[in-house]
């Protein structure tokens, strides 16, 4: 944690300025102040190693050639609290659970949870007083950016960030009625909402082959296909993909 202190040279001083001394410490501390000595040309200092969510007092003194020390009035400031620690876990192809922890020093009224799918130009926001929320209506197999912002008496605090990838949609398929040169592949529609199914693609190839798969495209009403022209006593790999109106392939 850090803060920058700036100043202007005194309008009147008791001699030529040789250096500046910046002194700072937590208001509640009984320890001696930390001191930084800077050249006469300096007009700013970067205070580092500060504690989060802590009130500090600062003074700037001009050290002169006459041995005098002209000090500024005390300045008070409070460092920011640590950002929220946010985590998200996919619960299904269309939902994700987001939870977070808030610094104990914060007295939070509520939280804004903003989420957007990577590649989209729009986002959605939900407000909650809890420290977790279940996001619903997400797209399957998609990456979402999530921002959680604490709100205290109408003032927005330091947000926390995370990402989550929703689960893929799985549906059942089966191979039956196998003969020496054919097999019937059947399936059920996706069990989760992935948009309107516009068709299915059935891909198959020899297990031992490096050639591209053979692809069959079928209408959305199809729930099975008969694969013919197969080789006898041969292993095959088969996959079924649902083509959707969202442009996805599950």
Key terms:
single chain, 250 residues, mainly beta, Immunoglobulin-like, 3 domains, 5-stranded antiparallel β-sheet, 52% strand
Structural write-up:
With 250 residues, the chain is mainly beta. It has 3 domains: 78 residues, Immunoglobulin-like (Sandwich); 81 residues, Immunoglobulin-like, CATH 2.60.40; 76 residues, Sandwich (Immunoglobulin-like), CATH 2.60.40.10. Helices cover 0% and strands 52% of the residues. Strands 2, 3, 5, 6 and 7 form a 5-stranded antiparallel β-sheet that branches. The protein starts with a strand and ends in a 6-residue tail after the last strand. Keywords: Repeat. It comes from Lepisosteus oculatus. This is Fibronectin type-III domain-containing protein. Pfam families: fn3. InterPro entries: ECM_Regulatory_Proteins, FN3_dom, FN3_sf, Ig-like_fold.
């Amino acid at each position: 944690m850090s803060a920058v202190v700036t100043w202007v040279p005194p309008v009147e001083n008791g001699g030529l300025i040789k250096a500046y001394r910046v002194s700072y410490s937590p208001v509640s501390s009984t320890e001696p102040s930390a001191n930084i000595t800077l050249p006469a040309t300096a007009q700013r200092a970067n205070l580092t190693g500060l504690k989060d969510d802590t009130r500090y007092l600062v003074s700037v003194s001009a050290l002169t050639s006459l041995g005098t020390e002209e000090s500024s009035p005390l300045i008070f400031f409070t460092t920011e609290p640590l950002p929220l620690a946010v985590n998200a876990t996919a619960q299904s192809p269309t939902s994700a659970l987001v939870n977070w922890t808030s610094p104990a020093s914060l007295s939070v009224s509520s939280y804004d949870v903003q989420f957007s799918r990577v590649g989209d130009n729009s986002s959605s926001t939900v407000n909650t007083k809890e420290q977790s929320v279940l996001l619903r209506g997400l797209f399957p197999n998609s990456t979402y950016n999530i921002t959680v912002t604490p709100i205290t008496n109408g003032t927005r605090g330091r947000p926390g960030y995370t990402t989550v990838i929703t689960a893929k949609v799985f549906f059942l398929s089966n191979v039956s009625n196998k003969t020496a040169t054919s097999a019937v592949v059947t399936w059920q529609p996706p069990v989760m909402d992935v948009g309107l199914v516009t068709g299915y693609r059935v891909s198959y190839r020899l297990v031992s082959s490096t050639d591209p798969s053979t692809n069959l495209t079928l209408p959305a009403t199809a729930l099975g296909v008969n694969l013919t022209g197969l080789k006898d006593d041969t292993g095959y790999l088969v996959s079924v993909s649902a083509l959707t109106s969202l442009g996805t392939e599950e």
